[in-house]
Amino acid sequence: MNVIAIRQRTEEAFQPPEDNGELGLISLKWIFSFLLRRWMLIGAVAFVVAVICFANFAFQPSRYTATALIMLTSGQDGVLTPDQTFVGEGPANQSLDNQLEILRSPLLAGRLVDDLRLMEDPEWNGSLPRGDGEMTRQAEVPQTEAQRLAVRQGVVNGVVGSLDVRRRGLTYAAEVRVTSQSPERAAQMANRLVELFQIYQVEARLRSAERANDWLSQRVNELRADVQRKEEIAERYRVETGLISSQGTLLTEQQTTDLQGQVLNARADLAEKEARHLQVQSMLGGGQSIDAIAAVLNSTVLNQLRAQESEIARRQADYESRYGDQHPLVINVRAERADNRVQVNAEIRRGISALGTEVQVARARLAMIETNMSAVRGELAGNNEEMVQLREYEREAAAARAVYEAFLQRFHEIADQGTMRTAPAEVISAAGVPTNRSSPRLSIAFVLSVALGFGVGLAAGFLAEALDEGFGDGDEVERKIGVPALAMVPKLRRSELRQLPVASQHPAAYLLERQVSAFTEACRVLRTAILFAAGQPKTQVVAITSALPNEGKTTMSLCLARVAALSGQRVLLVDCDLRRRSVKDVLDFEPPVGLLQVLAGEVNWRQATYLDDASGMHVLPLSDSGFTPKDVFGGEDMDRLLGELRNAFDLVILDCAPVLAVADTRVVVSKADCAVMITRWQKTPIRAVRAAMQQLQSSGANVRGITLNSVDRRMPGYYSYPMYEFREN
């Protein structure tokens, strides 16, 4: 039989209770139980911690906080550009955060320390002696520069710790708070810090402008030299290649453009003259009228001849109508008209010849212009490679000039900005001298102290609970050991025992005096669980033992025997603890003979048995005299004695020694019908109980269960703790 087998059978017989409000590993029931078990520890620790914390708060020196309100700029100061106020102007929130960090910076704190001579103030310089709360000017100066710097850094850190700079809502307003033991000093530090911040911002702007001015001045000179160099390269290359230009255009390009225009004009003129020449010839060959031909030739002489012919024709008609055909005037007029026609024809031929000449001249002129055009184009094609390189030089020079002009403009803007000395932060409200202290605030200190004390108390309670190796309830016994908890016997307080006579101030005597008490009822529950356990044979011999000494096993043996005797059973209590022999001490008598003499055969067990008049139980004690051999309980004498006792008594209770302390206990327990282990509530280590159970099981003992002794009746659920099933055999 081993521990694992017992646990398995226990799980089959005793199912754990259902989950009623459990929250993970910690249930509400457990929390309530924990608070009741540890309320004294939690309360004591919480009270001590709260008192210490509150005293620490109360005895701190009074401190006052002065607040100055300033309006910050929405952007950082920087170099002006044409399209924005300052170069580097980022988002408003980022800029405001930067300015708030400057207000909190050790740099401004250091300037404040030096400006207000806080190194000489005992409040800030802890190395200075204090005199009646006033500033001590004569102080011990550090011997070395390193020591002085270390002290100054400590003062600066203290000032930084006393500063509280925060933005007010989503506005650009910021609160600058300084806390000091002196209200006047707090207001002075807050106002001076704001002034130092304004000075720092102006200085930062000037330094930025100066640095930008110096850099831009150097950069402008470099760019000017670069522009000159690149323009000289372009002009030198132009001269070397002969790419002379006029008004930004090369001469060859201008000539090409002019010749292209001349070619177009010459071609148009030739086409016009050829068209007129062809028209006159076709009109002449087609028999067109002289007037049409004259209109095309546009000849003044021909027009005059036509006018004369018209006049002659008029006169001819007049003469013929008046004189007849043979009249000399008619003949002369006709001859004059024929001569006029000859002149007209001659003039037409002369016009046509002139038109042909003009066509030839126009054609020759066009040929000459085209020849010149071809020559110029050939020259222009020969300059393409030089032109490409020249354009590259010109582009580089133009780009360098554009950059130079931009930097030159920026240089003049920064030079103008350097004269701006406006403060970037405006003081809305200067810090006044505070009238009420900001710390310590006793109401808040009290709440914090109580909260901290309660938290530390809970931590102490949980620590004690974690370090507690004992059993908390019957469920824990079954879960960790594998056997049921038969009963939970409450602890009797001294106040309850003092109500009894001096001779009866013992739990066994209390049982007789208070037979309706919770203690007596728990003993009855134990008796019922032992004698009427479900599935167990009839029980007559019960061994009561414990894992370690001082568990209360002798007291429980006496109480169990008396309860059984009071119920009408014939009960015998046998003291089997050879080391202590404490039954006679509890009952306050000195027997001359006892168990050892019975086992040795010196006396009969009836001669060594004593009657307890108060309850009716019988006791077989151990006397002080008598030998103690090595194996008292392992022989046949013990078996024979138990056989006789079974016939004489209804119940025999063996008060055995602790299992882990005495080896003989396993022998005695193995001879009993069942064994009950007594364990002190939340005291006996679980590992000790587990080790004792293993030894009892290895010896073949029938362990009926474990009884929790000295249980605090204030434990939640004590009076409603579920009892295990039992039945009468």
How would you sum up this structure, described in words?
With 729 residues, the protein is α/β, with parallel strands linked by helices. Among the domains are: 134 residues, no CATH class; 242 residues, 3-Layer(aba) Sandwich (Rossmann fold), CATH 3.40.50.300. It contains 23 helices and 16 strands. It is elongated. The N terminus and C terminus are likely disordered.
Which secondary structure elements does this structure contain, and how are they paired or packed?
Blueprint: H1 3-13, E1 22-23, E2 26-27, H2 28-37, H3 39-58, E3 64-71, H4 92-104, H5 106-116, H6 145-162, E4 163-167, E5 173-180, H7 183-241, E6 245-246, E7 249-250, H8 251-285, H9 290-297, H10 300-323, H11 328-382, H12 384-417, E8 426-429, H13 442-467, H14 474-481, E9 485-490, H15 494-498, H16 507-513, H17 518-531, E10 541-546, H18 553-566, E11 571-575, H19 583-587, H20 595-599, E12 610-611, E13 618-620, H21 636-648, E14 651-655, H22 664-671, E15 674-680, H23 686-698, E16 703-711
Parallel strand pairs: 9-16, 10-14, 10-15, 11-13, 11-14, 15-16
Antiparallel strand pairs: 1-2, 3-5, 3-8, 4-5, 6-7, 12-13
Helix pairs in contact: 3-13, 5-6, 5-7, 7-12, 8-9, 8-11, 9-11, 10-11, 16-18, 17-18
